[in-house]
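For reproducibility, we list the full input for the magnesium ion complex.
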Amino acid sequence: MPTVDEHTARILAAVAPTRPRRVDLAQAHGCVLAANVRATVAVPSFDNSAMDGYAVRAAEIAEASAQEPVVLPVEADIPAGPGVPAPLRPGAAARIMTGAPLPAGADAVVQLEWTDEGSSSVAVYQAARRGLHIRRAGEDVQPGALVLPAETVIGSAQIGLLAAVNVARPPVHPRPRVAVLSTGSELVEVGSPLRPGQIVDSNSHAIAAAVRECGASVRRLVGVSDDADAFAKSFYGVLAEVDAVVTTGGVSVGAYDVVKEVLTGAGSIRFDQVAMQPGRPQGFGLVEGVPVFTLPGNPVSALVSFDLFVRPALARMRGLPAAGLPAIEVTVGTALRSAPGRRSYVRVRLDGPGPHGRYDAVPVAHPVAAQGSHQLTSLAAAQALLVLPEELTEAPVGTRLTALLLSADSRSILSGMGWTDADVTDDR
Ligand code: AMP
Ligand code: MG
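The corresponding predicted structure, in tokenized form, follows.
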């Protein structure tokens, strides 16, 4: 029975970042840079005004005051736009707008509010130091500068910066394309009426959402019954078009476990009973070079397995370090027991310690009610997965353990969910 760590190691040894490619900026959003991006241009590319006002020589208005303004003829009007303005003659001013190129000779911009806003001549009421309200060429980016290093996740600010340095097609690891396939003859698509014996396919939606959270794109394949030919057709039909496949269900030890039946012997796929709870039956391997994750069917098992095994793999495929959920240290707030020999993940909510709970202190973990592998309510209510290590059988109140934060929101350590004592139950 492989451990969680062994199963993870086997997966991570088999997956690699997607092949780098240049893509349009809009497509690059959410991708990871595959190479350092250096500037070939300066930003700004020319000296320009940071204010609406008047370009002047600072020395010529050094004596300006409200009582004794310095009056200069306005010899030009310079809006933002293409072209090079005429040099500023000594003793003159030029009206200039924000972002407009500074005329040669000018060394300060006096903002409108310090003047009478005149158009043929302008009265300046305040002195300005040299360089005031001038944005120098290269002030933001120098040519040749490292603008964004490889491994940067491209968000809105990075998109803006890439555009500013005139990089139209940055080199990225394209988002991994992931097919999500849920199997089960009992499954119907959400929104359909249920006949006896049917259940709504929640896994494909949950796993698809989790895939998207990982920065990958999803192809959800529905209506795959427990029929070997139907499953094989869906699976092999999509394999060539994706970078990974995630299936749920059909990997237990029962009859009709179609995923196991069809994929046994395919590529390097191996089906294992991983020493964990929930989510014992797992499978992973490369089929025609494509990583295939076969997760168990119980909804909580499927999502927890995703977080443990698929999430770090997708991070690596995106071009990032293979990180899973962020881990924090917590204190056990409710005594727990755990079966020996496997690692358990208990759905918990997190509280600050005591009535004056400080957020910088170690949070206290309490299990949420209903820890069965089929009970999604508790996963939806949980903020973290408390990790009970393999060798641990009892975790009294006060035990320090690791917990995996389930969502960014949970980092704000909310409180207020109901909870009960709960032993860790078996998968089935
Ligand atoms: P299996 O591993 O296929 O035997 O499924 C284990 C349990 O999970 C069964 O109770 C299934 O009905 C349930 N299950 C399997 N697939 C899904 C799914 N896509 N959505 C919700 N429940 C599922
Ligand atoms: Mg099934």
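The two ends are 17 Å apart (CA to CA). Residues 183-184, 226, 249-250, 297 surround magnesium ion (ligand 2) (CB under 6 Å). Both points were considered when choosing residues for closer inspection.
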